[in-house]
From TrEMBL:
GO biological process: phosphatidic acid biosynthetic process
Organism: Methylovulum psychrotolerans
One of the record's GO molecular function terms: 1-acylglycerol-3-phosphate O-acyltransferase activity
TM region positions: 12-36
Signal peptide: none
Protein keywords: Acyltransferase, Membrane, Transferase, Transmembrane, Transmembrane helix
Name of protein: 1-acyl-sn-glycerol-3-phosphate acyltransferase
Amino acid sequence: MKKRLDYYWRLFATGLSFSVFGIGGFLLWVLVFPVLNAIPGSPLKKRGRAQKCVHYSFGIFIGLMHRIGIMTYEVNGLERLNRPGQLILANHPTLIDIVFLLSRIPYASCIVKSKLCHNPCMKGSIINAGYISNEDPQQMIDRCVAYLMSGGIMIIFPESTRTVPNTEYHFQRGAAAVALQANAIVTPVTLHCSPSTLTKAEKWYQIPERRFHLSMTVGEDMVLDDFRAITPKSIAVRRFNHYLQDYFTQQRSKHE
């Protein structure tokens, strides 16, 4: 009986959490960002304020999920993040990966699906924090490169979508192209969720039998000199993309 009550509580709490997330995102758009934008400052400063606002909001959301018994989490190597001009490349097992990452990084941009730009719960954050749409692949790459070269921190999931459970990684080449073109600091972040939940194959209400644990491990910076020396650049991008797939496959095998 206790286990059953715990399950139904977590199911209710999960629905509550995502409702809070949606309502909170809408309120940021209509109430908070207009106030922040009214404060004098350059477009760069306004974008930074919005990014930090999202950072705090996502931290509250993760804290809520933790406190009401949906999840636990751990972070290893956080001191390696938050460096100007840093490209963070991460695997993507769950729906809340970008929320978790942005809750740890005060000032960062990321790539978002173009349809989210029209979602009232996300539109305000995307526009004001300067997140980059994936609608036009080449423009997306150019904007990411420019952002990194200006000293910004960028988060990219090379797979571009959540991992399908029990399948091999199939990374898109955009992340590798950005890394090589921007000459950025490239830092891998491995995310692992146990038990599996909020994957591409599961609905939000298909919760596990116990609360899930999300771990984040920040790896050492990747050395790209050998890849940057390869010509033509298309081959360099392809080889680095394969290297990324092998790296994250090895990291995943450590948890299996």
